[in-house]
């Protein structure tokens, strides 16, 4: 499956390199990721965090209203991890949040169904993606923490997942259009992220998921 996703991505991204109209269907998009994680050790103690996402894509027409979109995105994921402060006597002093920041380069191959050919056109997206781990950082109250307990990643720097979403195209002219879209991006499986130094006898595994809101321009 991994090889299939990579091959499909490369085929659609570079299929028009010999075409003088390579710029057609090319675009850029920027936006916000609203990310969180589910864990095999915790149920609901993690909270959503905001991050940046942006990338480039190539949209290729297949037939009628169906297009294939291949893209490369930079995306910030992770979660907010509550850190409860107490006094020496155990008195509750408040709750801070560890910002678990994980950065990925994401390759995606999506099917896009365009609702109509008018100036304003809604569409839906669905497909697969591969997230490649780039870096990670834990921050608490502006101070960077060591990655000892949250060691990224242990045995998997390529994570596979899906993408579904919807958007609206506004066609200014035959040469370009602008759009806004929202996608939901869950991982397919749990990924081992720590040797669980905090929880002896248990491996800590997580699934990333995010809601991305992006706007962009397509030529």
Textual characterization of the structure:
With 219 residues, the protein is mainly beta. The chain has one helix at 2-14, and strands at 26-39, 49-63, 66-86, 92-114, 120-140, 143-145, 158-171, 177-186, 191-194, 204-218. It has an eight-stranded antiparallel β-barrel. β5 and β6 form a beta hairpin. The two termini are 31 Å apart.
Q: Estimate the helix proportion, in percent.
A: under 10%
Order of helices and strands: HEEEEEEEEEE
Biggest sheet features: 8 strands, antiparallel, barrel
CATH class: Mainly Beta
Strand order, main sheet: write it out. 1-2-3-4-5-7-8-10
Task: Report the principal-axis shape.
Answer: elongated
State the end-to-end CA separation.
31 Å
Per the CATH scheme, the topology name is Porin
Quick structural overview:
The protein is mainly β.
Architecture blueprint of SSEs:
Blueprint: H1 2-14, E1 26-39, E2 49-63, E3 66-86, E4 92-114, E5 120-140, E6 143-145, E7 158-171, E8 177-186, E9 191-194, E10 204-218
Antiparallel strand pairs: 1-2, 1-10, 2-3, 3-4, 4-5, 5-6, 5-7, 7-8, 8-10, 9-10
Keywords:
Porin, mainly beta, 219 residues
């Amino acid at each position: 499956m991994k090889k299939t996703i990579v091959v499909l991505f490369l085929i659609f991204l570079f299929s028009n390199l010999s075409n003088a109209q390579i710029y057609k269907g090319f675009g850029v998009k920027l936006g916000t990721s609203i990310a969180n994680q589910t864990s095999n050790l915790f149920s609901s103690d993690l909270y959503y965090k905001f991050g940046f996402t942006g990338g480039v894509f190539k949209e290729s027409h297949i037939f009628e209203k169906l297009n294939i979109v291949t893209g490369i995105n930079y995306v910030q994921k992770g979660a907010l991890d509550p850190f409860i402060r107490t006094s020496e006597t155990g008195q509750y002093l408040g709750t801070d949040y560890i910002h678990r920041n994980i950065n990925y380069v994401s390759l995606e191959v999506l099917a896009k169904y365009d609702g109509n050919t008018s100036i304003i056109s809604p569409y839906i997206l669905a497909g697969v993606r591969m997230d490649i781990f780039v870096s990670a950082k834990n921050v608490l109250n502006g101070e960077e923490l060591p990655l000892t307990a949250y060691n990224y990643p242990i045995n998997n720097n390529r994570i596979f997942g899906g993408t579904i979403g919807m958007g609206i195209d506004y066609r200014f002219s035959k040469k370009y259009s602008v759009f806004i879209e929202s996608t939901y991006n869950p991982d397919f499986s749990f990924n081992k992220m720590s040797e669980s130094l905090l929880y002896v006898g248990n491996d800590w595994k997580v699934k990333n998921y995010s809601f991305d809101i992006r706007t962009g321009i397509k030529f």
